[in-house]
Specification:
Blueprint: E1 4-5, E2 9-10, E3 17-21, E4 28-31, E5 50-55, E6 69-74, H1 82-91, E7 96-101, H2 116-125, E8 134-139, H3 145-156, H4 163-173, H5 181-190, H6 199-202, H7 209-212
Parallel strand pairs: 1-7, 5-8, 6-7, 6-8
Antiparallel strand pairs: 2-3, 3-4
Amino acid sequence: MTVIKGEATEEGPKDGISAFQTPDFPRQEIRTNEKWRHHPTTTLPSMKINLTICGVDELPVQKRKRWTHVISIWEKALLHNTACRDLVKTVAPRAQLLFSFFEDTSDPNYPDAPRLRDVRRILEFTRELPARARVLVHCRAGISRSTAVAYAVLCQHTPPGAESKNLRRVESLRPLVMPNRLIVKWADKILKRNGEMLLPLMHGVGKDSLAWFSL
């Protein structure tokens, strides 16, 4: 069964279930593992994640690839647009879907910038990935928001100290990688990495990072 989580307000866990309400869609429920219920962003046991990153224009070629989880990132202006949801559902009809809506900016004061709660929801969605999960992450161009989210998910499932390795893994998946610094900053805070996720960006591990992350 496809599980959809939109821009949401959490009503609180009840009997192992966290409920979410979206403006345009009926309430959906997703079961949570009791072990992680009170520590949703704890670093998990290390695992190899089958991960793909793409932009919106590349979504049609991702059909019929048996995705288990999709993180779909759009601009906030599309929050009430059903077409973006329909597109993703045609690409991954059997996957668990997470829709997130925020702009591609590293300025926390910019309207509709990525918020801590946005990144927390994403990491809650990916905290219980099964061993054979096939994860697709997309944003508009597959360069900034999606690469930052992919980097955060990899760090979530690897121990501290693997940050540079995880960023290089993201680089190997895309021809141009410019992770959104604000998303990485929030993920670093949630995962309690004390700035370690930001260091590879500032030290030039990421492509074009010295120019991009001086913003």
